[in-house]
Write a sequence for this structure.
């Protein structure tokens, strides 16, 4: 064969081989290669993670999820006033908008850009800089400043936060929400504290706690219905939030007196036992404040007892949202372990101080064995605790097989969203596409939705349940048997939707 023909034939065979290799690549592999190609191009990387299906956000405080601009609208609608010095909302009557008055109406900010920007900065981490006030203190001070607006506009808050989730390619959100409007705290004030938890439970039930639960359920149902109206769900103009499934974690305020904390924990167990929108409970407020620190073991004892009464109720707990110097060293050594072992937490929120725990490697092995997921909030941990980059334990959790999922925490206060949490994770830890896909899957695997999982194993690889394994390559067309399985299991159904979203996403690459 002449040399020229041999060269042509070799080139043809090389092209044929390359074509065969390209065809052999799966959509997932191509998507992974694309991520690697844009890793050092932040604008393209941002576009990639924005479109990425993200599953669920399991650590999202409803009050903190609202951007300050929306809160100003809520305050103006409620005819609330603002203290010009502190930016704290106050009830009316308000001063006029003229002459730089001390207590103008919130609506005055629409025509006063200085006041408007001052309120946004005071109600969020926008423009905060290290100085006289720490990030920790500025962050937690925001809630008392805007609280009147968020507490009186719950439906609007649900609509705003849910719609942002839909725009961010989320399918599912669990909002932490103290939905009883203080009723449990008021009831606790009518009952003398009894150290015997069984007797204290009986006293609260006798005093009407089940009535509080029933009224709370009615209030939330009305707020949810109003939120759907705001989003125009069921119409041709339905907003993206209409496609997001929302559930609630009853939010216990652990910084209050122990009789109130017990009453709220009990209410959380009651709601999660009787009202499907409530799928569990969580304890909130800064872990380093005096009462949460001083009463930590008592709170774990409360959970330990009530878990025996309501063993099917799901529990997720803030634990390890601490850093060296914020509290004495001894207070860094046991919160995560105690929350898992005594508080019966199936998920841990933050877990930043895990390596300060007594025998941390054994704890990591225990969490991996128990399949306890950690809700990771990178931006929040940076702003509040000053922990980021190599100091953050996210890579350690992953190394030891502890399941993790990214979360927003308080995206309105932090001025972030889940897209930017994914972006920060990729840029800080060089996470692969497989890592991102695993996190999104874990978010739904560890959701508190009822029913069986789509997966029979998630430790090393995700193995699909027998009913649907044959349909995995065509998630948009499940078989009859798979459809029956999905219809009977809400969690599996949500996970199947995520697989369909991944299939569509990966076909773009």
């Amino acid at each position: 064969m002449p040399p020229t023909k041999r060269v042509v034939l070799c080139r043809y065979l090389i092209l044929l081989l390359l074509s065969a290799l390209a065809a052999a690549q799966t959509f997932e592999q191509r998507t992974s290669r694309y991520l690697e190609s844009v890793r050092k191009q932040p604008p393209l990387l941002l576009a990639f993670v924005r479109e990425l299906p993200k599953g669920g956000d399991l650590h999202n405080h409803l009050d903190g999820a609202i951007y300050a601009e929306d809160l100003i609208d809520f305050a103006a609608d409620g005819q609330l006033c603002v203290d010009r010095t502190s930016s704290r909302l106050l009830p009316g009557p308000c001063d006029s908008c003229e002459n730089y008055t001390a207590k103008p109406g919130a609506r005055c900010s629409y025509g006063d850009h200085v006041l408007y920007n001052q309120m946004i900065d005071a109600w969020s981490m926008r423009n905060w800089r290290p100085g006289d006030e720490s990030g920790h203190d500025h962050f937690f001070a925001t809630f008392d400043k805007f609280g009147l607006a968020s507490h009186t506009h719950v439906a609007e808050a649900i609509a705003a936060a849910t719609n942002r989730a839909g725009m961010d390619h989320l399918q599912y959100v669990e909002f932490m929400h103290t939905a009883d409007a203080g009723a449990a705290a008021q009831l606790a004030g009518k009952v003398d504290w009894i150290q015997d938890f069984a007797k204290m439970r009986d006293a609260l039930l006798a005093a009407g706690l089940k009535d509080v639960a029933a009224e709370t359920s009615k209030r939330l149902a009305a707020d949810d219905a109003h939120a759907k109206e705001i989003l125009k769900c069921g119409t041709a103009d339905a907003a993206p939030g209409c496609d997001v499934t929302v559930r609630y974690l009853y939010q216990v305020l652990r910084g209050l007196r122990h009789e109130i904390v017990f009453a709220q924990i009990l209410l959380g167990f009651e709601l999660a036992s009787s009202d499907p929108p409530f799928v569990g409970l969580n304890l909130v407020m800064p872990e380093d404040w005096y009462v949460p620190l001083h009463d930590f073991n008592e709170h774990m004892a409360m959970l330990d007892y009530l878990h025996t009464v309501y063993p099917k109720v799901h529990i997720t707990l803030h634990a390890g949202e601490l850093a060296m110097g914020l509290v004495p060293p001894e207070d860094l050594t046991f919160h995560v372990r105690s929350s898992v072992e005594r508080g019966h937490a199936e998920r841990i929120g933050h877990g930043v101080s895990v390596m300060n725990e007594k025998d941390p490697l054994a704890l990591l092995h225990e969490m991996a064995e128990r399949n306890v997921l950690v809700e990771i909030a990178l931006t929040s941990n940076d702003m509040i605790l000053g922990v980021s980059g190599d100091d953050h334990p996210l890579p350690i959790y992953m190394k030891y097989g502890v399941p993790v999922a990214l979360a927003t925490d308080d995206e309105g206060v932090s001025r972030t969203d889940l897209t930017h949490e994914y972006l920060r994770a990729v840029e800080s830890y060089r996470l692969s596409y497989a890592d991102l896909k695993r996190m999104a899957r874990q978010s739904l695997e560890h959701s508190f939705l009822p029913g069986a999982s789509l997966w029979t194993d998630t430790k090393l690889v995700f193995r699909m349940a027998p009913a649907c394994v044959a349909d995995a390559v065509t998630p948009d067309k499940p078989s009859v048997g798979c459809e029956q399985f999905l219809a009977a299991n809400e969690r599996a159904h949500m996970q199947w939707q995520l697989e369909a979203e991944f299939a569509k996403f990966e076909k773009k690459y």
Summary: The radius of gyration is 25 Å.
